[in-house]
Amino acid sequence: MNHRHLLLSASVALACVAYASGAAAQTAAQSSNPNQPEAGAARAVDGAEGQASRLQRADKSFLDDAAHSGHAEVKSSQLALTKAQNPKVRAFAQQMVDDHTKANQELAALAASKNVRVPEGPSLVQEGKIKLLGTADGADFDKRYMESMGLQAHRDTVALFEKGARDARDPDVKAFAQKTLPKLKHHLEMAQQLAQEVGVSADKAAAGGK
């Protein structure tokens, strides 16, 4: 009887040791990676954010180009307000400053809502064109401003926004392009009418300055 009791006690003791060893091993594994569930959740969040970033990057080029163009219109038109000779050209320039400043603000707000940054000025090429434009005076300035910024720049911007309105993946970016496009087309029509008054040929005016 005592012998059987000793054997039973030994078995129980061995079972307790085995259980304790298993528990310790499990605790050690958890300690080596205490945030395993959190890490999995983080990977899931990162994956979702990565997908969102890819969607945003698909439209980032449009937002950048639109920002460059808008700032170029404002800067060149501010120059026209100081150098233009024809009062109609100055009136056109003032409307360009007003309309494109508003559009630039809307674009910047849209970009901020998508956690992306857009340019805050013209591109280097546009800066060069504006600097060259600034070397002209009087009637020559009026003609060159209407031909380059009134006609050609708006022709290019209309094409850019037509593509954005058609192809943008982000619904807010698409809506912005669709909303802004009619105003840009109106600007181009105004420029076409005014360009001939300041000496731009009818062919160039009808072709958007090309």
Structure description:
The chain has 210 residues and is mainly alpha-helical. Helix content is 85%, strand content 0%. The chain is built from seven helices and no strands. The chain has helices spanning 2-32, 36-83, 87-113, 124-133, 138-167, 171-197, 202-206. Helix 2 (36-83) runs antiparallel to helix 5 (138-167). The longest helix has 48 residues, at 36-83. Mean pLDDT is 81; it is low at 5-20 and 37-52.
Descriptive terms for the model:
210 residues; mainly alpha; 7 helices; 85% helix; 0% strand; globular
Largest sheet: none
Q: What gross morphology would you assign?
A: globular
What integer value in Å does the Rg equal?
33 Å
- Which structural class fits the helix and strand makeup? mainly alpha
Q: What is the tally of beta strands?
A: 0
What is the residue-averaged pLDDT? 81
Count of helical regions: 7
List the helices and strands and how they pair.
Elements: H1 2-32, H2 36-83, H3 87-113, H4 124-133, H5 138-167, H6 171-197, H7 202-206
Helix pairs in contact: 2-3, 2-4, 2-5, 3-6, 5-6
